[in-house]
Write a structure and sequence with these properties.
The chain is mostly helical. It is built from three helices and no strands.
């Protein structure tokens, strides 16, 4: 088993780094979404799209609970 890991160490390291970067990117997106910096941030049409309205309504419901 250790031979297999030793032979593929570079692949394991690259895979671990990519997994870590993907995790950080997803966590950043979640953090931004929760703080109001989601995908509609800065969009001139955000007040008219369904996504913005759903996010706004969801936040109102969270505040009321």
């Amino acid at each position: 088993m250790l031979d297999l890991i030793a032979e593929n160490l570079s692949t394991v390291i690259v895979g671990a780094v990519l997994a870590a970067l993907l995790t950080l990117a997803v966590l950043k997106m979640i953090k931004d979404s929760r703080s109001g910096k989601g995908s509609c941030s800065g969009c001139p049409y955000s007040s008219g799209c369904a996504t913005y309205k759903n996010i706004k309504e969801c936040r109102k419901n969270e505040e009321n609970n």
